[in-house]
Amino acid sequence: MGPGLGPSLFSGTLGSFYDRLFPSKSLHFVHSSSSLRWLSQGWIIIKGTYTWHTCSLNVLRAYYEQYQRDFSIFMKYRAEGLVAGGRMVLNFLGRRSEDPTSRECCYFWELLAMALNYMVSEGLIDEDKMDSFNVPAYYTPSLSEVKIEVLREGFFSIDRLEVSAIKWNDFDNEFNAYNAFSDDGYKVAKYMRAVVESMLVSHVGDTIIDEVFLRYGKIIADRISKENCQFINVTISITKIG
Known about the structure:
Layout: E1 27-33, E2 38-45, H1 57-81, E3 82-93, H2 107-121, H3 127-131, E4 134-138, H4 143-153, E5 156-167, H5 183-204, H6 209-226, E6 230-240
Parallel strand pairs: 1-3
Antiparallel strand pairs: 2-4, 3-6, 5-6
Helix pairs in contact: 2-6, 5-6
């Protein structure tokens, strides 16, 4: 944005982005970050050793179809709110692989389930509480799946569509000298804690929540030291047609 842009109004709006949020043709630019992977309905049960690649084809298909419906609704309402020629930039977790069971989609959830199950085996968490714990459903699309949905709706032309990878130990530059060996694991655990803590507390209570994420951080640190663990981000820039 340069000095010749003129007066501008910026708005961060509360509400579901799967609904109408703005008056018709009132926007010149829309940006959504790290949100569109969450589906409008459905839950994922974190039971036993949670892993996406053990899901049945019917379950995977149901998540994909829900993603298609949600993305279609999102595009429809944002197209109504944008003026002709208006731009929209979206980024969200996705995957490079066309395989929906790829580890790229959910590895951090698998490791959280591992930490919780260790605590169940030690009697620190009640097994029934663990078996009833679930998280809001999400879907991490591939580039081709995003492209198909954007072009299917016909509201926008695609200016740019790309995927990028961020190593788990690169996304935060803070450093704790006292935890040098496993510091990267604690960073990722801290990030995930912001997402899932309130849901976990309602199941396991707040007295052991620190221990959950301490163990989670140690597991993550171990995996980072042995594997190339990455967040996969999809970024798309589109322009409203007509």
